[in-house]
């Protein structure tokens, strides 16, 4: 844990480094470029080889997908079915609220102009599976595709060394409307979905979170496909004044740390007394948790606790850091909430655990990380819609448009443009 106060000598330089840009390291970039090139050249053969190398599983080109029989055989507990249904209910309702609807207007010359929204035909959804079967992520991505009416949803997730995928995850994928399941993970899966192989039909758009290799693959393949955002290793930044409950704050920090050793957690407060209490609570609660291995890694390398001068400084640091999740706990919520601009999602007050947003609340938990929140927003339903603008004129509106069109045509030296308009009213 890096604990620093504004009086410390290295405070300013540390805070400056929190103003980050979402850029990959050289080694990850090079490795992912090689993986993409291999998949582009070797197709399914490369998928089989990487599955062996990174996931220790023997597959062949005929075994890359979950079969319909496997899917039909999936059995889960009634409590799982109930939880999946409850989460999906909120997700679909929230997603429907975020869908765009067709609209049109009459412009100044009398032409009808509008926008039309249709679901993408085929999307790919990556569901991480390296460290935990992220059942909730299946719902928080594919559920939005389903709500938007996407007919073909292919999911990719790594299988275990036995070639199997967790049954709860399969159940959730099915419930969320996924139509094919590729048992491949990592950058190689992203490359297969974007470029296609003999057995994998390429997609129009790619969605979903993953580790740094997955995120970097999406970044490099942008152009071949469009992507949703760059959702990488989980993060939380908690901003609290003295009204924060130290046990709750510690619990939320630990919850995001258990996602994996590459998670980042931060706590910023203007109350020095609260820092001591939170650190004690973290140490105490850690003893009772199962995933202490990952959490200890995060506490060692990915944790910072800052004692700032005041709330304004806390908010400024938060905007520079652009955390995936920001938890804001303070007496004057109305004042500070509008000033937090770069967070993927904001959790308000002592009683809003980030975990409820992770699993159940409704907004997608697929959120920008690594500083990308500065320029990306979290996953939304309308990202599964293709937008097309539509223009319709009649003789009257052509006549009214002609003068301006001809002037642009003259300036740009494009006389055929002017002619194509004039010809309609001659
Ligand atoms: N931002 C969000 O919205 C969000 C949501 C859910 C999960 N997440 C994050 O997703 C991540 C999931 O990571 P994960 O690792 O558990 O699963 P993952 O499925 O993203 O990655 C596992 C795959 O990575 C590949 N891989 C592993 N080691 C490799 C190496 N050395 N070189 C190249 N490829 C390698 C393997 O092929 C493996 O299948 C976590 O960091 C979690 O925090 C983020
Ligand atoms: Zn989480």
TrEMBL record:
Pfam families in the record: Histidinol_dh
InterPro entries, alphabetized: Ald_DH/histidinol_DH, Histidinol_DH_CS, Histidinol_DH_monofunct, Hstdl_DH
GO CC list: cytosol
E.C. number: 1.1.1.23
Gene3D superfamilies per record: 1.20.5.1300, Nitrogenase molybdenum iron protein domain
Organism superkingdom: Bacteria
GO MF: histidinol dehydrogenase activity; metal ion binding; NAD binding
Binding site for Zn(2+): 256, 259, 358, 417
Keyword NAD assigned: yes
Catalytic site positions: 324 (proton acceptor), 325 (proton acceptor)
Cofactor or coenzyme needed: Zn(2+)
One GO term of the biological process aspect: L-histidine biosynthetic process
Residues binding substrate, per UniProt: 234, 256, 259, 325, 358, 412, 417
Cofactor binding, per record: Binds 1 zinc ion per subunit.
Family membership noted in the UniProt record: Belongs to the histidinol dehydrogenase family.
PANTHER family in alphabetical order: HISTIDINE BIOSYNTHESIS TRIFUNCTIONAL PROTEIN (PTHR21256:SF2), HISTIDINOL DEHYDROGENASE HDH (PTHR21256)
Protein name as catalogued: Histidinol dehydrogenase
């Amino acid at each position: 844990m890096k604990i620093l106060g504004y009086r410390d000598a290295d405070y300013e330089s540390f805070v400056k480094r929190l103003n980050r840009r979402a850029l990959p390291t050289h080694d990850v970039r090079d490795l992912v470029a090689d993986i993409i090139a291999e998949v582009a050249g070797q197709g399914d053969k490369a998928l089989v080889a990487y599955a062996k190398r990174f996931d220790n599983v023997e597959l062949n080109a005929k075994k890359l997908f979950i079969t319909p029989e496997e899917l039909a055989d999936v059995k889960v507990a009634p409590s799982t079915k109930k939880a999946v249904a409850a989460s999906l209910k909120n997700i679909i309702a929230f997603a429907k609220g975020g869908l765009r609807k067709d609209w049109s207007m009459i412009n100044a010359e009398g032409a009808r102009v509008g926008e039309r929204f249709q679901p993408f035909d085929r999307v790919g959804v990556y569901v991480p599976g390296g460290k935990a079967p992220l059942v909730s992520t299946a719902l928080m991505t594919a559920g939005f595709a389903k709500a938007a009416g996407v007919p073909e949803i292919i999911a990719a997730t790594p299988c275990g060394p036995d070639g199997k995928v967790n049954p709860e995850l399969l159940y959730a994928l099915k419930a969320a409307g996924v139509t094919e399941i590729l048992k491949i993970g990592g950058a190689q899966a992203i490359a297969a979905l974007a470029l296609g192989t003999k057995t994998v039909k390429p997609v129009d758009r790619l969605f979903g979170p993953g580790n740094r290799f997955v995120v970097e693959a999406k970044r490099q393949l942008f152009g071949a496909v469009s992507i949703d955002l760059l959702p990488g290793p989980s993060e939380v930044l908690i901003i609290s004044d003295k009204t924060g409950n130290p046990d709750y704050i510690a619990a939320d920090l630990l919850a995001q740390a258990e996602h994996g050793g590459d998670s980042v957690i931060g706590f910023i407060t203007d109350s020095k007394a609260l820092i001591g209490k939170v650190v004690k609570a973290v140490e105490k609660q850690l003893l009772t948790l199962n995933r202490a291995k990952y959490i200890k890694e995060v506490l060692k390398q990915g944790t910072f606790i800052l004692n700032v001068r005041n709330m304004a400084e806390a908010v400024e640091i938060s905007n520079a850091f652009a955390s995936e999740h920001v938890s804001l706990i303070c007496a004057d919520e109305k004042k500070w909430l509008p000033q937090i601009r770069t967070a993927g999602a904001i959790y308000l007050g002592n009683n809003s655990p980030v975990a409820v947003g992770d699993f159940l609340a409704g907004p997608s938990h697929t959120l920008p990380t690594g500083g990308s929140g500065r320029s990306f927003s979290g996953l939304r339903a309308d990202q599964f819609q293709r937008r097309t603008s539509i223009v319709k004129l009649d003789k009257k509106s052509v006549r009214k448009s002609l003068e301006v069109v001809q002037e642009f045509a003259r300036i740009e030296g494009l006389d055929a443009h002017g002619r194509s308009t004039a010809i309609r009213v001659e």
